[in-house]
Amino acid sequence: MERLLLTIIIIAGAGLSAVSSAAGRQYYFVYDRKNFTEAQRYCREKHTDLVTVDSMEVMKILNNTADLSKMFYSKNSSRAWIGLHADSWRWSLSDPSFYKPGETEFRRWGVGEPNGGYSYKVCTGMGSDGFWYDSGCDTSTYPVCADVRGSDVTFVSIDTRMTWTKAQSYCRAHHTDLPSVRNMAENQKVKEAAGGNNVWIGLFRDSWKWSDGSNSSFRSWKVGQPDYNNRNETCVAADFSQSGAWEEWPCDMERAFICYGPVVSNKVMMKVKFENKKNLNLTDPAVMEAMLKQLKQKLEGPGLDDNIKLSWRKQADGKVFQQEDKKTNKRRRKREEL
Known about the structure:
Helices cover about 20% and strands about 35% of the residues. The chain is an alpha+beta fold. The longest helix is centred in the C-terminal third of the chain and has 16 residues, at about 285-300.
């Protein structure tokens, strides 16, 4: 009966908080409190981005990993930022060369506008007084189209009512696009072209979007959320005292956050000793594979997850197994007894 020494290589996630084997992602809870923008910057510098939660599997992983004792605040404890946020207003004509610095931010909202929070009111009209209002995109309104030729821009009124989306398609097919209003002079020109009507302009707002640009439509809102009561509540946190249900919050609040990145592998070598009582052929690949499976089952018990991978490490002589030196073993036992 042989006593044999062998070395196996264990590959596992290094320093991980949680791993999704299906998505191939590693999730990191960061308990240093930051606002949404700071958290986003940290995740992009250190990992990939703020977490995109795109399935119940990910929700379960995050719930099992969250440490509520590290998310205790004076108010609204147990929350952590995820990557979902409401996008800002932007223009239908997206060519950056069309805008000088600051021109994409020009606004001429009427009193109390926009008043839809982050609800269905995500398109913009101009009233007959030249002030803007937010509106549901499926409302039928006259559009104004823009013709852009170099630095020259002219505005054309269309005498057919249509939804914002149809107006955008019409303007792009027959002109350049819906109008981008970059300054007060252009605001006046669009007002004049409208001829006293309320008209569509090119400003619109995307609804909720993920920080990394993912297009996942998975949502796990808390009951009653989002409530759209506060226009400043444009970032999303998960409440881990309520199974990670999502809530909208002002982005300047400071709290823990969750990053994600690719799974990082770490190799660990371990020497294992066993007795070949059945005189197995240890060079048989099937025998070696069966031994690895048994070893993996034993290792999973102490806490290693399903993502560990085991492989044999060959010695300098090309062999995996080495017979134990009895003299060396006796000296080792004597040292242990002293």
